Amino acid sequence: MILVPITYKGGVYRHDEILDLIEDMGGYIIQKHMIAMEVVLQALVPRDDIERLKEIARPLTGEVIFAP
Question: N or C: which end of the chain has fewer CB within 10 A?
Answer without folding.
Answer: C
